[in-house]
Amino acid sequence: MSAIEVRNLAGAVAFFVFAAAPAQSNSVQPAGWIEYASVYPGGLVYSAKLDSGAQTTSVHATEIQLFKHDGTDWVAFRLKGDDGTQRAFKMPVARVSSTRDMTGPPIMRPVVRLTVCVGNISAAVDVNLSNRTGFNHGLLVGRNFLRGRYMIDSGNRHLLKLTCPSELQK
Fold first, then answer.
1. CA angle, residues 111, 47, 78, in degrees to nearest 5
2. What is the pLDDT, as a whole number, of residue 52?
3. How far apart, in Å, are the Cα atoms of 99 and each of 52, 54, 75, 104, 163?
4. Averaged over 17-37, what is the pLDDT?
5. Reported confidence tier of residue 40, pLDDT bands at 50, 70, 90
6. Which of 4, 26, 28, 100 is 20 to 30 A off residue 148, Cα-Cα?
7. Could you read off the pLDDT of 66-99 as tens digits, one per residue?
8. Distance CA 113, CA 126 (A)
9. How far from the centroid of its chain's Cα atoms is residue 77's Cα?
10. Residue 27, CA atoms < 13 Å, CB-side half-sphere
C-alpha cells in the first residue's frame, strides 16, 4: 500500500469513527456582549457587559467602607441597579484584589461573594467592588462567571431572556 493510500485510508477511518460517535453535550451557550444580568442578594438588574478579557466580575459600588467584625474583614457598600433601585450591604471580604491601570499605582479593591445571574444561569462568584463611574455598564461579567457557561457573540446584544431561578428571588 502506498503512502497516499495509507493516508486516505486513515482519513476515511477517522471520518467514520468521529461521524458515528455520539455528539458531545456542550452546555456553553451563545450570549451577546451586552446582556441583562441580576446580582443577588438584592435582585438588582443591570445591562451588563460580558467581558472575556476580564478575569473577575466587577460591579459599581459606592460608599465602600472596610471594617472589622468578630476579628474578620468586612465591607459595607451600596449597589444601584439600572432602574435606580439601591441596596445597602454588609458582607465579609473574600479577598482584596490588586489591579492596575496603564499609568498609575496598583488599586486595591475589596472582593465579595455574590450570586450573578445571566439568562437562566446563576452562580456565586467573586465580585470586585469598584468605582465604575464613567463606564457605560455598572456590571462587568468576567471569565470567573462566563467560563463553561457562555460564549460571547461580539456582534450581538441581548440574546438571552433574564429568567433567574426562583429560589434567588426570595
1. 40
2. 94
3. 16, 11, 18, 10, 32
4. 69
5. very high
6. 100
7. 999 999 999 999 999 999 999 999 999 999 988 7
8. 5
9. 20
10. 6
Spatial separation of the C-alpha atoms in residues 160 and 126, rounded to whole Å? 23
Which of 70-74, 102-106, 159-163 has the lowest average pLDDT? Answer: 102-106
> Do the strands 139-141 and 44-50 form a parallel or antiparallel pair, or are they unpaired?
parallel
The cell for 144 is 470567573
How many residues in the chain? 170
Residue carrying C-alpha cell 461521524: 19
Cell (9 digits) for 74: 468586612
Q: Is 111 helix (H, G, I), strand (E, B) or coil?
A: strand
Whether the pTM exceeds 0.85: the reply is no
**DSSP secondary-structure letter at 43?**
T
> 63 versus 167: which is more confidently predicted?
63
3-state DSSP assignment of residue 156: strand
Residue type, 76: A
Per-residue pLDDT at 26: 61
Task: Decide: 82 and 70 in contact? Cβ < 8 Å.
Answer: no
